[in-house]
Amino acid sequence: MGYHHFRGSALTRSEKIQAKIVRLILGSSPLAEKGESSREWELKHSSGVIAFARLFAQKRGVDTELAEIAAALHDIHVVLEGTYDSHAELGAQEARKMLSGSGDFSDSEISSICEAIASHSKKWEYSNTPLAEIIKDADCLDCFMYGEKVYDYKPEAELAHYYNRIVRIRKELSLPPIPYFNARLDELEEYL
Ligand SMILES: [Fe+2]
Ligand SMILES: [Fe+2]
Predict the structure, then answer these.
(1) How do residues 159-175 score in pLDDT, each as one tens digit?
(2) Ligand 2 centre from 30 Cα, in Å?
């Protein structure tokens, strides 16, 4: 038998969550209406963050399955409500309900995933929790794929940490430096 292509009953628990997120995004009226994000972007962004989270997990020796699931769910509040207000903390609560309801996850897995979701907006916090750091870095890497200035609406004190992360991530992945990122990091160094 060939690959299931996300059809049928042979999906893993990570694939089930990923499929659920795709369906939620495609069916999200708030995303279609509110204007803070869109179904199109959330679909692209969740797919990108899942792929990068899996890569970081492989590179850093972290559980790839939990990394994929946390990545799939990290912006679930935006998907459900169409707004970024407190979306990390509220999304962690929504993810907890979904994961508990599925019956597929242990309490400690749910806690790890939800902790990573709850903290993902705090890019200025460098935690000792590998899963949480993977979600922050995968989020950062994916967003910077849409342009070097994609986060420039943020306050400089916060922005410094986005540039700090992207410069560090590109080194970790042996990608060539992007001069704009390094220049902005130099300018904003006082905030680190
Ligand atoms: Fe987010
Ligand atoms: Fe995100």
Answers:
(1) 999 999 999 999 999 99
(2) 17
> Which pTM value belongs to this model?
0.97
Could you tell me the domains of the chain?
Answer: 13-122 (1.10.3210.10)
3-state secondary structure the chain: CCCCCCCCCCCCHHHHHHHHHHHHHHCCHHHHHCCCCCHHHHHHHHHHHHHHHHHHHHHHCCCHHHHHHHHHHCCHHHHHHCCCCCHHHHHHHHHHHHHHHHCCCCHHHHHHHHHHHHHCCCCCCCCCCHHHHHHHHHHHHHHHHHCCCCCCCCCHHHHHHHHHHHHHHHHHCCCCCCHHHHHHHHHCHHHC
Distance between Cα 1 and ligand 2 center (Å): 35
